[in-house]
Design a protein that fits this description.
The chain is mostly beta strands and about 110 residues long. About 0% of the residues lie in helices and about 45% in strands. It contains no helices and eleven strands. Keywords: 2Fe-2S, Iron, Iron-sulfur, Metal-binding.
């Protein structure tokens, strides 16, 4: 596992969101209601980017088909078409004045 810094803590605020591509992972770092989350950056339903999603109340809603997911664990809360898997989530790691993620060293590992 290796630590990859994503953002300086001073830059984070409610409404913050930024996407990152790390190895094969597309990640979305966001802050909502004082909480920070790191989730996959595309909806597992039809791979629509989640950077345009509605966020609030601990949930994220995809702009394309209005699927809703819990931010804390990624579980699917509501679907409008066929069900899909939940969002992948990653635990944030804090080192000094930065927040980041621990990613497995080999390709294909989470």
């Amino acid at each position: 596992m290796r630590f990859l810094p994503l953002e300086k803590l001073i830059n984070l605020h409610d409404g913050y969101s930024c996407t990152y591509k790390i190895d094969q992972h597309q990640l979305l770092l966001l802050q909502s209601d004082g909480q920070r989350y790191l989730i996959e950056a595309v909806c597992p339903h039809r791979e629509h980017p989640l950077d345009l999603a509605s966020i609030g109340g601990g949930e994220i809603q995809c702009a394309a088909h209005h699927y809703r997911f819990a931010l804390d664990d990624g579980r699917l809360l509501q679907h409008t078409e066929e069900p899909c898997r939940g969002l992948r989530t990653w635990e944030l790691v804090y080192e000094g004045n930065e927040v980041g993620v621990m990613i497995a060293a080999g390709p294909g590992n989470e």
